[in-house]
Specification:
This protein is mainly β. The protein has one domain: Porin (Beta Barrel), CATH 2.40.160. Helices cover about 10% and strands about 55% of the residues. Strand 6 and strand 7 form a beta hairpin. The longest helix has 17 residues.
Length: about 240
């Protein structure tokens, strides 16, 4: 009996050890992609976004960190917009984000499918966006079909607003030559909800123009991340 007990105890201990893995606690990365705006003008436009990130990996599947973005948000069209409005915003933003991956809560060890989707994640953040109008229509052109020369459309060409990014994405993990998780390829969709009227530069009275919802721009990016720093033990096999 003593021999059986010792053998079972050894199996349990070694099984627990082999179920653990090591991972790096920090990562940084960058990415690029397109964005699309949903603001007070009739029709949104397509722009571009570039970003850089720095994260602390609380676990391999829970990340908290900072993201900085630079890009161009466009909307409206001086020719086709009903009020001849159009803007180009060369923005920068800094946000703090928390991302939570599926691998933190599912048991993926015995399923290839679950193992392959363990990098799916959702995220939420908060920060500030610095809006700077590179070009904006403040007065209707003289050839406008309705009320030519009307203006100026009220609003600011520069300003800071609070922004809340909401993320949905997928992390694809790549091991280095020693078997550690070292590289991550990220595909991300992010909805940036801004508070205030700075994103499109228009702050028209809602009785005259549709102006009753937050200005939003969505980004669709692909990025690359490098993991480094101190090594930490995780409870599951990676």
């Amino acid at each position: 009996m003593k021999t059986i007990f010792v053998s079972l105890f050894f199996v349990l201990i070694t099984g627990s050890i082999f179920a653990q893995s090591n991972y790096f606690k920090l990562s940084y990365g960058f990415g690029i992609g397109a964005n699309h705006s949903y603001t007070d003008v009739k029709k949104g436009g397509t722009g571009y976004t570039a970003y850089g990130v720095f994260d602390v990996h609380v676990t391999p599947y829970v990340m908290a960190g900072l993201e900085a973005q630079y890009g161009m948000v466009h909307g409206g069209d001086i020719v086709t917009d009903p009020h001849n409005r159009e803007f180009i915003n060369k923005y920068t933003s800094v946000t703090a984000n928390l991302k939570f991956m599926l691998g933190e809560v599912i048991r993926y060890e015995r399923s290839d499918f679950l193992y392959n989707i363990r990098g799916l994640y959702v995220g939420l953040g908060v920060g500030v966006i610095n809006n700077k109008m590179d070009d904006i229509v403040r007065y209707k052109p003289s050839w406008a079909a309705y009320d030519p020369g009307y203006g100026p459309f009220p609003g600011k060409d520069k300003g800071l607003n609070l922004v809340t990014p909401v993320n949905l994405g997928f992390n694809y993990f790549i091991n280095d030559g020693y078997g550690y998780l070292r590289y991550i390829v990220t595909i991300n969709a992010q909805s940036n909800i801004t508070y205030g009227e700075g994103l499109d530069g228009y702050d028209d009275p809602s009785r005259n123009f549709e102006n009753n919802a937050p200005d939003i721009f969505n980004t669709y990016t692909i990025g690359f991340r490098y993991m480094f720093g101190n090594i930490k033990v995780y409870r599951k096999t990676l």
